Each structure stands twice: as C-alpha cells, then as structure tokens.
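Field: sequence (string)
Field: structure_tokens (string)

Example rows 1 and 2, in order.
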Amino acid sequence: MDSFTRAGLRFAVSDSGPADGDVVVCLHGFPQGPEAYDAVVPRLVAGGLRVLVPEQRGYCPTARPPRRRDHALPELVADVVALLDAAGARRAHVVGHDWGGVVAWALAAGHRDRVASLTVLSQAHPAAFGAAMRRSTQPLRSTYVAFFQLPVLPERLLLAGGGRLLAASLRRSGLPAGLAAGYARRHSAPGSLTAALNWYRALPHAGPVGPVEVPVTYLHGRRDPFYAPAAVTGTADHVRGPYRRVPLDTGHWVPELAPAAVAEAVLSAAGGRDRT
C-alpha cells in the first residue's frame, strides 16, 4: 500500500518488507517526516518485518485540515488505527519518536488490543511529563512548547531566510547539518510548518493519556535537552506491562542517530522476549 484514507483525508505511507511479516508502525515527530526512519527501516525489513511509515496528519499535503482542533491527539491516534485497518493488521509493534511518541503512548493506552509492543524514542509518558512540569526543570526545557502555540510568529521566525533559523535550531539541538537542512526544506512548502505546529496548538484538546499495559521499551538520549530526568524516570510509573528503559549515548534525535539500537529494540519485541 502507498496510502490510506480517513475522514476525507489521504495519507501517504511507505510499506516495506514481506507482506506476511509482523507489522511495525513507525511514527515520526516534529519537525521530521517519514525520512526520520530511513536508517531504521532496512534493519527491520532484514529481520522479516513489514514496516509501515505514514506521513502523518498535517505533514502530508493531502491530509492537512485547516483547524487546530483537527490536529488534536485523539485525531492523531484515530489516524493510526485507520492505517492498521487499511493494512489488514490486527496488531502492530508501534515505534514513536518525539510527538510520534505521544501518539504511540496514547494509542497503546486507548487501544491495547491493537498494539503488540511499544518502542518509544525520547518521549516520556505524557503523565510523567506533566508531573515533571510541576516539580523539576521541565518547564525551562519546554519553553518552546508555549512559543509554538502562538499564532503566526513561530512561522515567521523559523522560516525567515528560507528556513535558516529552523535549520540552525535543529543543528544546535544535535541534529546533523544535512538532516537539519532537509527538515527545514520540508517545511518551506506553503502551509507545511503551520500544519505541523498545529499539533502544539491543539494541546488544549488533547485529553489525558492513561497507563500502558503492553510491553514497552523506552530509549532516550542521555544528552537530550528537552526532557528532565524526573520525566524520564517517572515514565516507569505509567507502564503496567514488561518495561525496559535504555539510556543511549546520544541526544534527542534517536531514530536518526541510533538506528541500530532502535531496530534492535523493535526486533527484540517482535521476537517475544520479555524484558526486565
């Protein structure tokens, strides 16, 4: 399959690997696209898995509704359920980075029957993140979230000079220059950055994310500037199933900079090995 539809929107999707393999869904974050998993997918396919990487709501030009509320977390989760239905997959091993990790946590909490395992990259459980906002350095690390919710100004600043500021900010956060430039080019298209920022602007419509009972592997960079230690360690309190936290010697951009570790975690989960 190369696309699926939901509620009048058409989503592009990359579908790789054997048709009869266990299904993996990889969800990108901000300001990435499916290309964030370019170094992960071949490793998973080599392990016999069928890998689906959607271009998510707002990022895909044919799935870009205009209202902020249309980018709220329940809509993002429903998109993934529609992808599984279109692919004929009863369950999938779900991988999510950054905002894709938020979607992955919410999917596993609300649709346990559709998620065989969860591999979360960088993103703490939303409830742990919320608790850390009240008792740690997390508010200082998340000032950009409030900025991104402002109207118009973020787009004007980040896209000034052909996206140079966006690319520079990504480089400062540890993303290699070539990848930073590529993501900046992605959002130089009309309406692209606004649609991606609408995920942040729709946060008032998100709702809570409950505990997760499926097996979880949480990979995070030791040098990630965006998550306080309290959010990282507190994530365990919101997982009821088998859980493993794996610190990596990297920063925020785990799928791009540690693809072998990501693939190893997913292959382990697909092989059914419990982790302690």
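Row 2 begins here:
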Amino acid sequence: MRARAAPAAALAAVLLLAGCAQSVDPIERLGKRAAQGARPPSPAAGQAHRRWGLAAPLAVPPSHPARPPVARRADAPPVVDHVDTTDRVVFLTYDDGAGRDPRFADMVRELRLPVSLFLADGVTDPGHGRFARLRAAGAAIENRAPGHPALPGLPYAEQRAEICGRRDRIGSRFGVRPRLLRPPRGAYDTTTLRAAAACGVSAVVLWRAALGPDGVVHRRGAGRLTPGDIVLVGPGEDGGPTLTERTARLLRRAQRQGLTVARLEDYLA
C-alpha cells in the first residue's frame, strides 16, 4: 500500500502545482505581459464616445459604399454638395480652422471619425504640424486653393497655377495627392473647372449644410440632415463653443436622425 501511495502523492503534487500555475492572479498576468512588451487593454476601451459627449458609439459606415454613378467629363469635374446614396451617412468637411483646436485630433483618433480637411493656408507654415497630427489621427487631406479671396475671374493660367501649386505643396508636405477641391467661399467659374480638370481633380466639393456658431444652416434641401449631405464645419468664433464641442453636437444630431459619418473620399475620389 505504501508503494502505491508514493506515486499517487507525487501525481497529486504535480496536479496541484499545475493548478496554481493556471490560477495566477490576473494583475500578475498583466504585469508579465507588460514586462514582455505587450500592452494591457485600456480600461476606457469602447468608452471613447462618452468622453466626447455621445450617448452611444458612432455606427460603422458600410464597408461597401453605395456609390452612385457620377457623370464625368474630361474637361470639367462634377460639382457636388450632396452624394446621391442610399447609405444613411453624412460627410464632415473642415477647412484650415480645424487646426486651431488642440483637442480635435484626439477626437478624430479616439472616435475614428472620418473627416476631410480642405487646406489652403498654413500648409508650409511653422504650425503645419497641427495638420500632420490630424492626418496621423486618420483625417484625409484635400485641396482648398488658393490664397486669393476667390478664383472666378482669374485667367486660366493663374487658376491652374494656384490649384496645381497647392496640390503639389500638400503632396510634398504630407505625402498625399489631393483629388478633391473646394474653392474658397464655394465660388468657381467654368475656367475653374477647366483648371481643376488639368490638375487631376475628380470632384469640386461644396456643401449642403454648414455648422456655424449658431448651429446648422442648410443652403438648400429638406432643412435637416439627410443621407449623403456634405457638411462644412467652420472654425467658430473666439469665446464660443470649441470645434470639438460643436462637432459633438453635430454628431448627436446625426445620431438622433439615424445617421452616421462616412469618408467622403470613399464615395467621390
């Protein structure tokens, strides 16, 4: 009996040690993972929407966008303020003012917010890093030429130089080639479209709705956000709500209407 008991005791000891190894405290496991270079999960994972004042996460846009057929001409890109799609999405676009709010890049990154920046000024200034940070957070970089107040009335050669020149400076600075153009103040003429086509622009982008200091202003349409609307989010005014605060209000409004945000380039470029 004693001869049989010894192997049994040894087996029990092995099983006990194995059970202890499997029941390591979870905090100790996290410490070992961190020591091995593995990053422990963030305690706030999945809660980013609450940080930015949303009651629920943004719905994920369709992985296969319902892209409408767009009539394209070799000598003039289409001019759009709305995408004719059945997807329940809207598109958020920003100009240079997006770089003024230091928290906006965090918002874009944490919410995985698909936004498009149309840049004109500041691309080559010492402060261009704010746009690089937004691009690193996932924002798309597009063209808003020129430095002049407006394009209409300028000769073809000058308009082409402004549009292509800004495209090339953006490409040199950020390593991207903009395919969309927003003319300053939404003003353009037939010469603008010819020059844009020569610079490889696939669409001239205006806006159906604009978010200003006093809320959303609809240029035309139903007077409310509808699927496919392109929204211009302005920088706001000093002393008023920040860009992130106003963007959060717009997101809440879209969510109440059963809409989410999609990347404009997925539908146009």
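free_text_note (row 2): The first strand starts at residue 79 and ends at 80.
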